[in-house]
Design brief:
globular, single chain, mainly alpha, 12 helices
């Protein structure tokens, strides 16, 4: 029996719907831990609201926080397949549905809080969605996530059939793109995190293309995806500031090496993707290393 998963005396199929049980109805400490981590941002937002720590416009602050966690969880749901393959951690597939549903819950909360910020004037909410491009994009992402969440159950998989179900759930890639674009368009003070999200999304697509092409990518292949994602982030940010604000592209690129400015988006993308790849490399070498030390 695995240390992180304690089995009940026997299988309980009726309990399989519980988020902390596995496919056989057994309690899973790993799934419970993930569930608690997914709830933490919501609890933190609610706690700040209860303590009056959200300033003069608490509803506005809550909707921004919920939106930020929405896109983080969307990208996390997309990252589970690469992480499972690179880290050789099959149990990550057990929480993919949970993370996806959590992403939808945060997006739904984000939209509900937006409606609350508009005093639930539904006519105004609809007109804003129609007239503002970034709101229309965000609402489209919400509708797509709603469809994915509604069809995430085992029963819906059987009803739709595996092929149609997989085809429908490829919408998640489009949701990732829509979420990043929405994040860019609504960001006003800083574009650092939107560029980090864009770079990570680029890496996730690059990994999927590589996995389709090579089936079992080796470490040099993965290192190439890291380099490409980092270059995309750096060059994309430089091109954006040159086109939008007229800032020389070279000056923006040089800022990536100015540590006094803090970690730049390209450096953050590099650190995250490289950490995953190096962890995967260590995971492959670890059994050999243990054997060598044992001998």
């Amino acid at each position: 029996m695995r240390v992180a998963e304690a089995a009940l005396p026997s299988s309980y199929p009726a309990l399989r719907w519980l988020p902390w049980t596995d496919a056989r109805g057994r309690f899973s400490a790993f799934k419970l831990l993930v569930l608690l981590l997914l709830l933490l941002p919501a609890l933190s937002i609610a706690s700040d609201f209860a303590q009056g720590a959200l300033g003069a416009r608490p509803v506005k602050e809550m909707l921004l926080a919920a939106g930020l966690w929405s896109i983080r969880l969307i990208l996390l749901s997309l990252a589970l397949s690469p992480a499972r393959a690179i880290l050789q951690w099959p149990r990550l597939s057990q929480v993919r549905r949970m993370v996806g549903v959590a992403a939808f819950a945060y997006v739904a909360a984000h939209f509900t809080l937006y409606a609350a910020d508009q005093a639930f004037d539904l006519a105004k909410v609809v007109s804003e969605i129609v007239l503002r491009v970034y709101l229309a994009i965000g609402f489209l992402a919400l509708l797509a996530l709603a469809a994915l969440a509604a069809t995430s159950t085992d029963g819906m998989v059987r009803r739709l059939g595996g092929k149609r179900w997989r085809l429908l759930h490829r919408l998640v890639y489009g949701v990732g793109v829509l979420a990043v674009v929405h994040f860019f368009l609504q960001s006003k003070n800083s574009l650092d995190e939107p560029w980090v999200m864009a770079g990570l999304l680029f890496w996730l697509f690059a990994w999927r293309l590589l996995a389709w092409w090579r089936k079992q990518p080796e470490l040099p292949d993965l290192a190439l995806t890291v380099a490409l994602a980092t270059a995309f982030t750096a060059l994309g940010e430089a091109a954006y500031f040159w086109f939008k604000l007229g800032v020389p592209a070279l000056q923006v690129l040089q800022a990536n090496w100015m540590w006094s400015l803090g970690p730049r988006p390209a450096a953050v993308v590099l650190a995250i993707t490289l950490a995953v790849v190096l962890a995967g490399g260590f995971r492959k070498l670890a059994p050999r290393w243990r054997l060598a030390t044992a001998l």
